[in-house]
Amino acid sequence: MSSYDVLIVGGGIVGLSTAYHILKKDGSKKVLVIDKSHGIGGGDSGKSAAAFRAFFYSRTNLALAHSSIEFYKHVQENEKFDLGMLFVGYLLIFDKEKYNRVSKVITDLKHRGLDCSEFEPEDLAKKLGIRTSLAGDEEAELMGLKDPYRGIYIPLAGILKPENLLEYYSREVQKLGGRIEFDTSVEKFIIEPKKLTGIPGEPFPWQEAEIKGVITNKGEIRSEKVIVAAGAWTHKLLDPIGIDCHSKPKKRQIFTIPASKPELNKLLYADGINKYNIMPFILLPGDVYLRPEPFEKAFWVGLSDDLGRPFILEENPQPEEKYYMYGIYPVLHQYFPQFTDMWPSSMWAGHYDISLDGQPVIFEDYNLIVSAGTSGSGIMKADAIGRITASLYYGEREAELYTGEAFRVSDLSLQYRKVEPELLII
Ligand SMILES: Cc1cc2nc3c(=O)[nH]c(=O)nc-3n(C[C@H](O)[C@H](O)[C@H](O)COP(=O)(O)OP(=O)(O)OC[C@H]3O[C@@H](n4cnc5c(N)ncnc54)[C@H](O)[C@@H]3O)c2cc1C
């Protein structure tokens, strides 16, 4: 039997960032991260589109994303660890109706000093070859697709390689003396009374009990503190012990389309939008997104569907080819005729771990810390989430983010939760 100061269940981006920040504050802590996967990135972090943006209305979203992005930039530029981070930008393409809904929010963001610029439909057509008039197209009309009206380009945004980010944190954790063990699956929590009486059968309901460790497929691990950072699996671990993490998993899929035609190549390496001459991450009306994958000379395409998509955890979620065919392709090829007759060369699926309000959930109960509910933006916020979870572990009221901003730890708890709603709904 082994014993630790901190045991972190889940070696995804949240668990690793948390381990890193705990050890960074105090390198004498005995920290173990365990994961049931065979290796790094076995959970949803390794399946991510890993796009990021520091452009949100909600103070919470902005603080978490901005600080994390600045930290990753520092890692890549100053520590010289390649995260594959490219500031290609985000391009949000709105139809007229949606643009009218969000334009006030965007004006407010500009007043708050957040940088963005607008593209007219003609610019979009010239730079990206997007179709700007769908008039007279029977299929587009039947689908209710509207003409692109404006593009909002956000420069402090882009993409990174999630596997490199995981690699960075795992390397740093081990350098600081932390241990990471794979193929180690938590089966049960060890629940014991705070004060043992020695009477067989304890803990009894009248006793004050708490979590003292876990039972895994490899045996018992005891720890002063257990932190659950098990992403989409968190509820599966906590429901049986009566702790509600207020987040649930939903399947999300990515389809790879190779840039195998000259017109797709031209789109992927679009000139003059950013310094790399790579197209930005694009969000189309109809919510289809298009992410450049310049390292593979391809596009990653996705769409986060909601109504009708169940909250279900699947151990090995499978992508649905028909979802591309009937859910994504009809929109994609209408706006970008370059994709006509293009089908995925590969595809995969993972989960979003969706919380009650789309913000992470970080709280402590019965000596157990929970850090989950990243809701589809866990890569872009992971560094800040790790800092806040580490601060909760150390009993600090405020976490200092990389940007220097003080973030009240209880703002992401359940009991004292205080998060600002996101008004830039895209
Ligand atoms: C298709 C897709 C696209 C995405 N796109 C973006 C994006 O563009 N930008 C962005 O910021 N985010 C994106 N996300 C979300 C992002 O990937 C997640 O928010 C983030 O990876 C969650 O990290 P995590 O550490 O909480 O979870 P995970 O990476 O899933 O880590 C949890 C770990 O817990 C382990 N575990 C579970 N149960 C047990 C157990 N019983 N015992 C031991 N270990 C256990 C799992 O094996 C797993 O490795 C996307 C996600 C998906 C699926």
Describe this structure in words.
The protein has 426 residues and is of the alpha+beta class. The protein has two domains: 2-69 and 163-245 and 356-412, FAD/NAD(P)-binding domain; 90-154 and 249-354, D-Amino Acid Oxidase, subunit A, domain 2 (D-Amino Acid Oxidase, Chain A, domain 2, 2-Layer Sandwich). Helices cover 28% and strands 26% of the residues. It is built from ten helices and 20 strands. The chain has helices spanning 13-25, 59-77, 96-111, 121-128, 138-143, 162-175, 234-238, 262-268, 321-335, 378-393, and strands spanning 2-9, 31-34, 51-53, 90-94, 117-119, 150-154, 157-159, 179-181, 186-193, 209-216, 219-228, 247-258, 281-283, 289-293, 298-302, 346-355, 361-365, 368-372, 398-400, 406-408. The strands form four sheets. Strands 1, 2, 8, 9, 10, 11, 17 and 18 form an eight-stranded mixed beta sheet that branches. Strands 5-6-4-13-14-15-12-16 form an eight-stranded mixed beta sheet. Strand 17 (361-365) and strand 18 form a beta hairpin. The longest helix has 19 residues, at 59-77. It starts with a strand and ends in an 18-residue tail after the last strand. It binds flavin-adenine dinucleotide.
Furnish the topology, listing elements before pairings.
Elements: E1 2-9, H1 13-25, E2 31-34, E3 51-53, H2 59-77, E4 90-94, H3 96-111, E5 117-119, H4 121-128, H5 138-143, E6 150-154, E7 157-159, H6 162-175, E8 179-181, E9 186-193, E10 209-216, E11 219-228, H7 234-238, E12 247-258, H8 262-268, E13 281-283, E14 289-293, E15 298-302, H9 321-335, E16 346-355, E17 361-365, E18 368-372, H10 378-393, E19 398-400, E20 406-408
Parallel strand pairs: 1-2, 1-11, 2-8, 4-13, 11-18
Antiparallel strand pairs: 3-7, 4-6, 5-6, 9-10, 10-11, 12-15, 12-16, 13-14, 14-15, 17-18, 19-20
Helix pairs in contact: 1-6, 1-10, 2-10
Bound molecules: flavin-adenine dinucleotide.
